[in-house]
Amino acid sequence: MSARTITIDDTTLRDGEQSAGVAFTLEEKLDIARGLDALGVPELEVGIPAMGDGECEGIRAVAALGLKSKLVVWSRMHSGDLDACRNMKVDMVDLSIPVSDIHINKKLKRDRDWVLTTIREMVPRALDMGLEVIVGGEDASRADPDFLMRVMDAAQSAGARRFRFADTLGVMEPFGVYDTISTLRGIADLEIEMHAHDDLGLATANTLAACKAGATHVNTTVNGLGERAGNAPLEEVALGLTKLYGMGTGVDLAQFPALSEKVAAASGRPVSWQKSVVGEGVFTHEAGIHVDGLLKDPETYQGFDPGEVGREHKLVVGKHSGSHGVLAAFARMGLTLSPAEARELLPYIRAFAEKAKRSPADHELVFLYQRLIGRTVAGLTH
């Protein structure tokens, strides 16, 4: 196990908000920033100054909170955009520039030499403004590997402290990420930050692979919010680094559910029932074998303690329940059933779940019990 620490640079307030149709109010932005800081997230990317006065007001307001987290703003590697980053009271700027030929040639109508020259000119300008610099390699995952090395060399020579490897379109897979980041780690002393998108459902896996290969920093968003299919989720990355690789992040997820709910509400993007770590159903158990095991010892069907992420196991009854699950469900309501009564109720519970497409609520279980067993349950019939 490695004792290496990975720095999370969460970009919920920048790339997360770039998700189509998402717009945080100032109070929501401040609330999210406070929540991230309270979890111990060490770096926050908090906005794009070139967007105008409203965005700048929000960035300054976050800076005025006096958070422990270092603050980062995002800027195109463009004179006007960088000028907008003055007096934002933040620590760092991510100067982003395309590094793939398709972006350089088709989008910007430029060439590789222009990219290298721009890096050499703009990084020192940002440093003169008192900002530490991340050189963001847009579309790095589709860049020519040899040119990428030249980009990193130019960034390091110009005084940047970090290179952001952006899988802008989410087209990489973990083995390729590992090979690429390992190569870059071997040729430069820069910090390397992985920026993964989830278009193929691999953002978390790619982020973990990058860390295994030597990346020092990673970008995440709460709930995986972000453009198109989203970014690497903070909760998955932080948990995965600790549980799988023994890498620390300094992030305590015990209070994460409240922040997850805030971001879901502010973004208008509800969390799916089975979303890992934070989904309502991810610690909910119905299958008879699982419930029986959990009742005997939680370790039988527990990959990690849900308490670590502010959650707890929830046992429900339904089509796949066994009698042990029925006994436990009624015991939770303070009602002791005999094994025979549980077996008698089980077919009716299964039929209910199949017809209603859900587990019966407590009052519905009580109703079934009273109807079938005939015993009045005082205080539980409402």
What does this structure look like?
- This protein is α/β, with parallel strands linked by helices and 382 residues long.
- The chain folds into 2 domains: 7-267, Alpha-Beta Barrel (TIM Barrel), CATH 3.20.20; 284-373, no CATH class.
- Helices cover 45% and strands 13% of the residues.
- An 8-stranded parallel barrel has the order 1-2-3-4-5-6-7-8, surrounded by 7 helices. A two-stranded parallel ribbon has the order 9-10.
- Helix 8 (174-187) links the parallel strand 6 (162-167) and strand 7.
Write down the CATH class of the largest domain.
Alpha Beta
Oligomer: single chain
Total helical elements: 15
Overall number of strands: 10
CATH architecture of the largest domain: Alpha-Beta Barrel
Q: Any idea what the radius of gyration is?
A: 25 Å
What is the topology, as strand order, of the major beta sheet? Answer: 1-2-3-4-5-6-7-8
In which range does the helix fraction lie? 40-55%
- Give the number of domains: 2
What name does CATH use for the topology of the largest domain? TIM Barrel
Shape: elongated
In CATH terms, the superfamily of the largest domain is Aldolase class I
* pLDDT averaged residue by residue: 91
- Please describe the biggest sheet, giving its number of strands, its sense, and whether it closes into a barrel: 8 strands, parallel, barrel
Structural class by helix and strand composition: alpha/beta
The helix/strand order is: EHHEHEHEHHEHEHEHEHHEHEHHH
